[in-house]
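I am writing to request your help with a piece of structural work I have in hand. I am sending you one protein, given as its amino acid sequence and as whole-number tokens for its backbone shapes. Kindly check, if you would, that the fold set down in the tokens agrees with what the sequence suggests. You will find the record immediately after this paragraph:
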Amino acid sequence: MDIKSTVEKMQILLPHWIEHNHNHEAEFRQWAASARAEGSENLAGFLDKAVATMATTNEILKKALTEVGGPSKAQHPHHHDHPHHHH
């Protein structure tokens, strides 16, 4: 696999990963609030740490996206659906 091929793939994948992580951050925050409301402060704290770590991960992924020249201008031919279970 040549470098250009990887760069082109990253121009498509990185924005998807960043958005996907944002969705998880929101979900983690909701679950942390639920845990906190039920008195599970330790659990909520772990979820809060996961949110903070995911935010740091996204900052790194944004730097990687800049490194590859930003998002792809080409139309992405398919969607990546990731079902999530909400309780």
Observations:
- The chain has a mean pLDDT of 87.
- Helices lie at 3-37, 41-67.
- The chain has two helices and no strands.
- Residues 3-37 form the longest helix (35 residues).
